[in-house]
């Protein structure tokens, strides 16, 4: 569905669509049921058209011939399709089955996204077959984890819960077993049993005043439109690309959408991930406690380790919002301990000036400085992510060694706080809950419109559809050359750790 370049030299990223690989004569379109929805009364401008786009970049240097426009053509602004309801849809709601899965680590707001997918599919479009795939990618083909049949009643209070009711896992990505399950629409459960449960559940619900659907089990069993909602981080999105490629290769009528989840905020292109702000808020509580401990001791250091496997966004944002931090260490920036301009010299001066100091370190920082055994060098989790050593414990030991060596007999304490899972195992705050709702509804509108192999996410404050492949390839490291990092350094006055 790629559109040609317009006169204004705005070129939107080509968005994969079902019509790219399925014959048009096999694809029926339907009028969006929102047309008949008594809450909407669609008026002019309600439906989004394929020519509505969101610019990827909104900061330009008008005096520059090129600026930083598209890589291939410097005169072109890169744009993405704007998210929102389309007038025509490619799925007949009564014959549509949706599957929702959560993969990877936890993130505040997962349950809100699931809830809003269920409520949105059910209330906006009248989809009655909604399945929760359990325990991550492996749940598609697991013989022990049957899908949950979801409906609005079931998910009502889920936005108030941390974690994911569907459960999640790392590893277990078996492309062919997953796509086989999607293709047969069975998810390793005897179709008859599953369909009867779902059928009874929707007949039951419809008798309680929910939008009525025809309780005809034969129609129900003919269900062959499938939508797969994959909620996960960078690893999950790489898996989703493979699933989408295989679905295209098999030419099956399945819409695939990724909903980016990452407490580390390490997914590129989108403004930020849901749950990130909640995690930063929780991280600040740990920093406050470290500050109190450090201030109340003689030569006290409060040391906080925060999540951030390869990116230091949580540490950076918590530092900026807390203002109690003397030094913030992130994976994107090398640092060293001893010598001129090193961490030890800096902390020595801070203790002399203020009597205490607060140090925040992202878990991925300084990993190359921590001694490790050969086995530790190789250790990976089920998804293949490198397992990190505890930079906080290592720093604590090194700081104690330094003090005993340079200030023997003087009082000194390091209070190490590692909130680990506490920052991500909480329910989403209000801002994140709102974000999750808009994200889920954007995803539904896009899939219904026939887009597939895409991610829904905010770009410059507007919701857009981005090809899955672009998101899977993009990273979001902290740019230590930009203004935000410079701001951290002005707040903390910490060294740049560049050896002269
Ligand atoms: N390159 C990849 N190709 C296919 N699947 C992947 C890839 N990387 C990770 N996965 C799968 O995605 C899921 C989540 O990945 P993980 O890295 O643990 O979390 P996250 O998605 O949060 O980054 C796991 O089931 C994992 O097996
Ligand atoms: O949940 P686990 O397996 O203990 O992994 C912890 C990791 O998960 C994270 O919280 C999030 O990572 P993902 O987004 O890749 O799932 C990292 O910050 C942390 O390193
Ligand atoms: Mg990840």
From TrEMBL:
Protein name in the entry: ATP-dependent 6-phosphofructokinase
Q: Name one GO cellular component term.
A: cytoplasm
| Enzyme Commission number(s) of this protein | 2.7.1.11
Cofactor names from the entry are: Mg(2+)
Q: Which residues bind Mg(2+)?
A: 234
Task: Kindly list the positions annotated as binding ATP.
Answer: 105, 170-171, 233-236
PANTHER family named in the record: ATP-DEPENDENT 6-PHOSPHOFRUCTOKINASE 1
Q: How does it assemble?
A: Homotetramer.
The species this protein belongs to is: Citrus x changshan-huyou
């Amino acid at each position: 569905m790629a559109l040609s370049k317009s006169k204004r030299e705005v070129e939107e990223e080509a968005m994969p669509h079902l019509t790219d690989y399925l014959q048009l004569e096999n694809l029926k379109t339907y009028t969006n049921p929102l047309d008949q929805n008594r809450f909407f009364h669609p008026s002019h401008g309600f439906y989004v058209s394929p020519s509505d786009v969101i610019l990827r970049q909104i900061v330009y240097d008008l005096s520059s011939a090129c600026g930083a426009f598209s890589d291939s053509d410097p005169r072109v602004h890169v744009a993405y399709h704007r998210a929102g309801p389309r007038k025509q849809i490619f799925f007949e709601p009564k014959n549509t089955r949706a599957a929702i899965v959560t993969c990877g680590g936890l993130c505040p707001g997962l349950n809100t996204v699931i809830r809003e997918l269920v409520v949105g599919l059910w209330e906006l479009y009248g989809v009655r077959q909604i399945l929760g795939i359990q325990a991550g990618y492996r749940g598609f083909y697991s013989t022990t984890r049957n899908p949950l049949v979801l409906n609005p009643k079931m998910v009502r209070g889920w936005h108030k819960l941390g974690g994911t009711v569907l459960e999640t896992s790392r590893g277990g990505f078996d492309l062919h077993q997953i796509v086989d399950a999607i293709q047969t629409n069975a998810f390793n459960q005897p179709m008859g049993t599953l369909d009867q449960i779902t059928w009874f559940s929707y007949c039951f619900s419809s008798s309680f005043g929910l939008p009525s659907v025809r309780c005809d089990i034969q129609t129900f069993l003919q269900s062959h439109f499938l939508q797969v909602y994959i909620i996960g981080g960078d690893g999950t999105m790489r898996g989703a690309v493979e699933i989408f490629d295989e679905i295209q290769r098999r030419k099956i009528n399945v819409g695939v959408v990724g909903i980016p989840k990452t407490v580390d905020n390490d997914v590129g292109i989108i403004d930020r991930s849901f749950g990130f702000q909640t995690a930063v808020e929780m991280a600040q509580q740990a920093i406050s406690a470290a500050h109190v401990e450090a201030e109340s001791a003689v030569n006290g250091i409060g040391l906080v380790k925060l999540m951030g496997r390869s990116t230091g966004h949580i540490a950076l944002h918590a530092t900026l919002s807390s203002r109690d931090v003397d030094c913030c260490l992130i994976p994107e920036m090398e640092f060293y301990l001893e010598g001129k301009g090193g961490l030890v010299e800096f902390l020595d001066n801070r203790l002399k000036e203020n009597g205490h100091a607060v140090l925040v370190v992202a878990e991925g920082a300084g990993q190359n400085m921590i001694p490790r055994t050969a086995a530790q060098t190789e250790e990976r989790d089920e998804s293949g992510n490198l397992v990190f050593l505890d930079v906080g414990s290592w720093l604590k030991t090194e700081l104690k060694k330094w003090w005993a060596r340079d200030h023997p007999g003087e009082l000194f304490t390091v209070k190490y706080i590692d909130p680990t899972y506490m920052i991500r195992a909480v329910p989403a705050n209000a801002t994140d809950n709102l974000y999750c709702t808009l994200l889920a509804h954007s995803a539904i509108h896009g899939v219904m419109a026939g887009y597939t192999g895409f991610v829904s996410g905010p770009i410059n404050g507007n919701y857009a559809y981005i090809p899955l492949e672009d998101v899977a390839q993009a990273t979001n490291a902290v740019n230590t050359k930009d203004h935000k990092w410079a701001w951290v350094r002005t707040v903390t006055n910490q060294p740049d750790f560049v050896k002269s």
